[in-house]
């Protein structure tokens, strides 16, 4: 009889220990920004789920139809950046560059290297180096796995439990659908943005473009805000998902000052080539 009581006690004890262990692991994960319970394979699968959601919502995401020359232009730029020795997942993620035909001034990247650039952004910037700086920034979000890091911190124990117990096989699809509502997955933290800016500079150092191209983008945003006295509506989406505090701008300029020899901001812009491409952009729907 005593043996049975002990057995019952221990049966209740083990789940308790298991739960405590999960809570401890979750706390450790949330305390460490670089922790990520998702594998690279998970990142790719999650990115594919996002892509399905995006393609299933043409009103919200009107993908550019036709204009293969423009698509090739952006894809070629992305591939050249991916040749940087600083890129570590070029053979792991199926990097894919797509264009959304909308007046919104923005670009974003989902896990696994699915990069989306709006024609509104392409019309907003003035040279290749600027667009390359933005594309490099988005690639950095994938390389540094910012979205799944945030998912790890957000879901914690529930995701851990599902993975450990071999839970719902459609988990990634569910996460993608949940995050897609309200575009929550696009909202980067200040730290994410700063890190993506840093790597954009590092990636472009080995290309033909001026490595600080993203600074021209910052300058253009600030000028638009100055001229109009507030943030223009077509920039709202960008600044809600890519915060632009002054310390972020200072950080980029500081990193550029470290490069030896100092890059010339008047070279590697390819302005004429870019303006010729812009003339081919269709009117947004």
Helix tally?
Answer: 13
End-to-end distance, in Å?
A: 77 Å
Low-confidence stretches: 2-14, 16-33
Q: Structural class, from helix and strand content?
A: mainly alpha
- Gyration radius (Cα, Å) is 22 Å
- How would the global form be characterised? globular
Helix content range of the residues, please? 55-70%
Main beta sheet strand tally, sense and closure: 3 strands, mixed
When the domains are counted, the total is: 2
Average of pLDDT:
81
In N-to-C order, the SSE pattern is HHHEEEHHHHHHHHHH
Number of strands: 3
Strand fraction band?
Answer: under 5%
Task: Kindly report the spatial arrangement of strands forming the biggest sheet.
Answer: 1-3-2
List the helices and strands and how they pair.
Layout: H1 2-31, H2 40-55, H3 68-82, E1 96-100, E2 107-110, E3 114-118, H4 119-124, H5 128-143, H6 146-155, H7 157-164, H8 171-180, H9 190-204, H10 213-228, H11 236-241, H12 246-257, H13 271-278
Overview of this protein structure:
By secondary structure, the protein is mainly alpha-helical. It folds into two domains: 1-32; 39-278, no CATH class. The protein is built from 13 helices and three strands. The chain has helices at residues 2-31, 40-55, 68-82, 119-124, 128-143, 146-155, 157-164, 171-180, 190-204, 213-228, 236-241, 246-257, 271-278; strands spanning 96-100, 107-110, 114-118. It has a three-stranded mixed sheet with strand order 1-3-2. A hairpin with a 3-residue loop joins strand 2 (107-110) and strand 3. Helix 3 (68-82) crosses helix 5.
